[in-house]
Amino acid sequence: MLGRLKLTFALALAAIVIAPAARLAAQDGGRFRVIIPYFEPLEDADRGFGKDVSKELRELLEDFPTHVSMEEGDIKDEAKRFDMKIDDLNCLYTRQLASQVNIPVAICGSYTEVSKDNFMLSAEVWDIQGSESFPIEAFPATKDDRELAAQNIYEQFERYSTTVRSAAICNDYYASQQWDNALRNCDESLSLNPNQIGTRYLRGRILYEMERMDESLGELETVIEANPFHEDALQLAGYIAAVSEQDDKARDYYSRYLDINPGNSAIRMRIAYELAQAGDPVGAMAFIQVGLDVDPENVDLHTQYGGFAFRAASDIQQEAALTAPADSEESLAPEAAGYYREAIDSYVKVFEVKGTETEVRLLENVVSAYIQLEDLDNAIMMSERVLETHPSEDRPWLLYADALQRADRLDDAISALDRVMEINPEHPSAALRQGNWLIQAGRLQDAVVVLSRAAEGNPAQAAQAGTMVFAEAYQNGYQQNRFQYTVDGMVLGKQIPNLGDDMLNQMNFWHAFSLYRKAVADQEPNTLQSAQATLPAFQEALRLLGLAGEYPASVGVNLSEIQSNVGTYIEIQEAIIKRGS
């Protein structure tokens, strides 16, 4: 079953929120244009009343801060372009016209004459691109009340504007991931107009991001009930149902989604991709497997299945490494190993069909999977096959080198990394990797030669190179009381160019301190020979301590005290030598 993981769908925000101000560019002096035709008389009602109310409403909108009405003459001209008259513009035709001429909002309505000069008027505000309406409840008006009727509609339009503003603010807060603020503004917008499908879907998204899964699914079900073909709602509802272990619902929503987009591999791969992007590659594999059951030779499905299996293996292994005890040896988790094998199987099927046309990325993943499985023979064999057709790409060479090094073919691995650097002289890790492998093999001097080349003209790599040599000399030298090994390592490390003062100070201190510790042990016979042998070491230690800068204080060492101790040993050796002479 799918894990309860987060999913971040690519969200086309402009298509979600019914906010013309956020979506459309049909403006007049910075305000959004509104088309208001004559209100439509029904049942032989007096036509003049509708004309007068629409005229009054257009005049009222002249002072509205965010919207402005099209002038009556402009409406007539635009209608004429489509072989219509303004008198023909009922709500449906008005919306169609507005869409054609890029007018974001329409206010239209109709009325009946309930008695002489008494009318019942109803209207609605339409968001044209969102195809959503803001209904204005029917109200009575007399022939002489046309100004009051227009004022009533105007006030309702103000409420509509508030819903748009709240929805837009909700959208902005959503984009900045301020979920509480986003939810509050969506709720405000929906309290004024509960029929906003776009805003209700966004509210479902916000609840999902807040991990209020049951509420989110309930909101999405409301959206789907109102619009059974809302693809985003079906897709997200299917995912939430799946991660909530509501298998029947998940299958239903995904099936309905595929009914809208007739089931083909491209749609299936898109859904699977979204699941994988959400952090659930195992669930994505299951979805692709259904397609492979029907079409087992589909190369695209195998390509995606292999990618999801590789991702699943990597994720599982990373999680295992994070949760493993600190003192445990690193090993491949059995579950990860299984997914790596599945990835190899799918990628090999692709390779069998596409041959040299196979994306090199896929073949690199095969090599990486073999390496993780410690199947080094197959890793080396596949690398060599890849390099036959892609000899000028650095990553296949890098993987080849890795496999060779793990197979104890160090010199061949070093040569492969040389090839990486020939192809890409600016490769960020090849030289450092060479140096590290040589250090691991006990070839510190060879490592410093390689690392010095990497450090020339690259202070960042110089710092890494210095750290690598220092760590080797300190951990395998000083910490094991192998002081001469530390001294030799620090001498080699200081040959690396561009180390920087901090690293040089650090190396000088441990070089000095290791000389001092070794000399203290070597001088214990207190003979002329031991004094003659150790005096230069003490003198060199004292000199190097003077080159340690502020480093000793940074590790809690009293430099003056150590210098005094070294000075005392120098005096003792000098006295022994003088007495012996």
Any overview of this molecule?
- Strands 1, 2, 3, 4, 5, 6 and 7 form a seven-stranded mixed sheet that branches.
- The protein contains 26 helices and seven strands.
- Mean pLDDT is 87; it is low at 1-25.
- With 581 residues, it is of the alpha/beta class.
- Among the domains are: 19-170, Rossmann fold, CATH 3.40.50; 517-581.
- Helices cover 66% and strands 8% of the residues.
- The protein is elongated, with a radius of gyration of 38 Å.
Write out key terms for the chains shown.
581 residues; alpha/beta; Rossmann fold; seven-stranded mixed β-sheet; 26 helices; 66% helix; elongated; disordered N terminus
C-alpha Rg (nearest Å): 38 Å
CATH topology of the domain at 19-170: Rossmann fold
Weakly predicted, low-confidence segments: 1-25
CATH architecture of the domain at 19-170: 3-Layer(aba) Sandwich
Distance between the termini: 87 Å
Count of runs of 4 or more consecutive helical residues: 26
Helix proportion of residues, in percent?
55-70%
What structural class should be given to the helix and strand makeup? alpha/beta
β-sheet strand percentage: 5-15%
